[in-house]
Amino acid sequence: MDDQLSIREARAQLPAVVTSAARDGHITVITRAGEPAAALIPMFMLAKLEEWEDEQLGRIADEAVAEGGEPANLTIGQMMDEILTAGSQGTA
Predict the structure, then answer these.
(1) Is the domain of 76 the same as that of 51?
(2) Containing domain of residue 74, as a range?
(3) Distances (CA, A) of 62 to 37, 50, 52, 57, 67
(4) Tens-digit pLDDT profile for residues 46-92
(5) Residue 44 · residue 25 · CB < 8 Å
(6) For residue 35, what is the domain's CATH number?
(7) How many helices (H) and strands (E) are present in the chain, helices listed first?
(8) What is the DSSP secondary structure assignment for residue 25, as one 8-state letter?
(9) Half-sphere exposure of 88 (CA within 13 A, CB side)
(10) How far are the Cα atoms of 52, 65, 66, 67, 83 from residue 71, in angstroms, in the given order?
(11) Strand order in 4-6's β-sheet?
(12) Looking at the DSSP assignment, which residues form a beta bridge with residue 39?
């Protein structure tokens, strides 16, 4: 199975794409107008991503408390921005 499929191709091959993700751990990038738009990933990868995200949110809250602030002073959006920025810099 391809690593990238257009929306049209993904729609036509959806049962096979889902089976490949679930059984083989395959990741398929879905493109729109030739540009990556989304990805179909296995559930275990989503669970790991959510676990990592929770750890990062906890770290940010702990740092805010250690600096004398309160975690409630940060919005979830601000925390997510910090996580994504740190992740894109490879320092999370």
Answers:
(1) yes
(2) 45-88
(3) 34, 18, 15, 9, 9
(4) 999 889 888 888 888 788 778 776 555 666 677 777 777 776 665 44
(5) yes
(6) 3.40.1620
(7) 3, 3
(8) -
(9) 6
(10) 18, 6, 10, 10, 15
(11) 4-6, 28-32, 35-40
(12) 29
